[in-house]
Request: fold
Amino acid sequence: MDEAPNNRASLAKGAKDIAKEAKRHAAKNFSKAVDRASDEYSAHRSYNRFHNEDEEENHYNTYTQPDGHSADNAANDEEGASSDATEGHDDEDEIYEGEYQGVPAYNDGKTQDGHVALGQPVSDSVKSHKELENERQADEEELAQQYELIMQECGHGRFQWQLFFVLGLALMSDGVEVFVVGFVLPSAETDMCVPNSGAGWLGSIVYLGMMFGAFFWGGLSDKVGRKQCLLISMSVNGFFAFLSSFVQGYSMFLFCRMVSGFGIGGAVPIVFSYFAEVLAREKRGEHLSWLCMFWMIGEIYASAMAWAIIPHYGWSFSMGSAYQFHSWRVFVVVCALPCVCAVVALTFMPESPRFYLEVGKHDEAWMILKQIHDTNMRARGQPEKVFTVNRIKIPRQLDELVEMESESGNSISKVFFRIKSEVHGIYLNLMKCFNYPMQENMVRLAVVWLTLSFGYYGLSVWFPDVIKHLQADEYASKVKIHNNERIESFTFNFTLENQIHKNGLFINDHFINMKLKSVTFVDSTFRSCFFDDVTSVGSYFRNCTFVDSFFFNTDIDESKLIDGTEVINSTFTHNKTGCQMTFDDDYSAYWVYFINFLGTLAVLPGNIVSALLMDKIGRLSMLGGSMILSGISCFFLWFGTSESMMIFMLCLYNGLSISAWNSLDVVTTESFPTVRRGTGFGFCNALCKLAAVMGNLIFGSLVGITKAVPILMASSVLVGGGLVGLRLPDSRANVLM
Reply:
C-alpha cells in the first residue's frame, strides 16, 4: 500500500519539469478562469467571445500524462508532496506587479524565459511584416468591438461631463486665437508704426503657425498620447500669447503670435480625438457636436472682450514714449485666460485609455476604464456596482526601426535630431492614411476641408472689410471743404475732423493742444504759426508751405508733409515718437466689434440644431446640406447695398455654415483608426488653415474692387464641397478602430 503513494510522488516529481516548460501553474489559471466566469455571470454580462483565443492557449498549456493524470493534477499533487521552499524560489510564484491594485494580469499568449511551449504558433521573427500588420489589423477590429461594449458598461456620466468642460476650454482657446488676430490687427499695426507693405502679415503668420502646429501636434499625439501633447501645446500657446502683449517691436510681436498659433494648432485634432475615445457609439455624434459649441463660445468671448476693452483708450499706461501698453494689449492678456484655465484643469484628467491599449499598456488602460466606470456609478448612486472587465484585447505591437543619435552629440543637436525623428514618424504615419482602402475617403475629406475653410475664412475677411468700406464711403460723403480761406492771429484749441482746406492762408495762428482727425490741407501756406501738442490721425499736408513756423511736441513729420510740401526757416523740437493713436479717433470701432458679436451670436441656433439632429438625419446629410445652403445664401449678397443688409447676410451665413463645421468634425474623427486619428485629423486641420491664408489673401485683395468675383467664388466652392461631402462614407455606425 505504501508503494502506490511513492510511485505517485515520483511521477509528480518527474512531471514537474515538463509542467514548468508549459506553464506549470495551469491549475492556478484555471481557478482564475472560474472566478472570472462567476463574476461575469453575477454581472449578467459576457465577454467570452473575446477570450476564445486565450482559452485555446490554455488548452495548449495543459499537458496530459500517460496514466490519465493531467499536468494540472500533477502540479497540485506535487504541491502537497514537495515544497517549493526546499527547491528555491520560483519566478512564476511572484505576485503580478499590478495585482496589489486589483489590475488583472494580461496574458498575450507569449511564453516566458525564451522557451517555446508545445502547440504555440510560429515565432514573429519568421513572419513577414505584411503578415504581422494583418494580425494587428485583426486585433484592432476585435479590440474595437470589445471597447464599444466596455464603454457601454462604463456608461455616460460624470466623468465624460468633466472631460467635456476641460476639453471645451481648450477648444474655446482655439476660437479665441482665430478671432483675436482680426480684432487686434488694425490697432497693433497702427500702434507699432507698421508701413503698408507690412500690413496684413499678422493674420497670415498666425494661420501659418496654426497650420504647422495642427500637423505636428496631431501626429505627435498618436505617438506620445493625447493628454501629454495637449498639455504641451496649450502651454506653448498660453506662454507666447501672454508674452506677445508686452513686446514692443512688430517683428517680435509677429514671432510670438506665430509660436502661439503653432501651440494652439494642436487643440482641434487632439480635443476631438481625445473626447471621442471615451464615448460610446450612440453618444458620439451628439456630444461631439455639443463640444463644438465651445469654439463658438470662444468667438463670443473674444468679440465681447474686444467690444468692452479695445475702444477704451483709458485702459492703458506708458513709461515715457518708448514703452506703450495700450488697451489692445490688455485685450490680448484677457484672451490668454481660457488657455491657462485649460492647462490647469487638464492636469487632473487621465490619458485616453484607448491610446494606452493601442500602444500595449494594458494595466494603465484598465485602471482608467475602471476609474471612468466607478466615477459614473457613484454619480448614479450605484457605488456597489463592480467593473466586470478582466482582460482587454491588446493589438500586436510591431517593432519599429529607430535611428539613434550619437551619445557624443551636444544637447541642442539631440533636440533637433529628436524633432527630426518625430516629424519623420508623423510623415510615415500620414502616408498610411493614403493607402487603400482609406485613400479615396482621405482625398474627399481633404477637398471638403479645403472648400469649406476657403469659403468660410474668405468671407469672414470680406464681410467686415466691405462693411468698413461702406462706412468709409458714408464718412467721406460728409466731408466739409473750405476754399481760399484766410485766418490770422487765431488760436485753434479744438478738434478739426473730416475737413479739406484748399488754398488757405494761415498767418500768426496758434494750434495748441488739439487733434487733426481726417483733415487734409492742400496748397495752403502757414506763416509764423505755432504748433504745440498737436496730434494728427489720418491727416496730411499736400503741397503746402511753412515759413518761420515752430513745432513743439507734435507728431507732424515727413510722413505727413507730402506732395512737395516745403518747410522754410521752421523748427521742430521734442517731436512725439511712435505712432500716436487713440481708439476714440476710430469712429467705427464700437460698431465693428458689435457687428462681429452679432455674427457670432447667430451661430448659436445652428449649433443647437446640429447637436440635436446629428444622429437623427445623419452626418453626411447635415454636412452636404449645410454647405450647399451656405453657398446659396452667398448669392443674396448681390443685393446687399446697405450696411444693415450686409449684417443680416453675415448672420444668416454664419448660422447656416456652423452645422457643416460640426458634422465635418464628427465625420473626420470617426473616419480614422486610433493609431492614425490624430495624424489624419491634424492633416485635415492643417489644410483648413492653409485655405484660411489663401482666403485672406484672395478675398482681402478684392475689397472695394468688385463684388461679383468674391460672391461667385465663395458660392461655387461651398456648393462643390457640399456635393463631395455627400459622397463620403457614413461613419455613424462605425466603432472606433
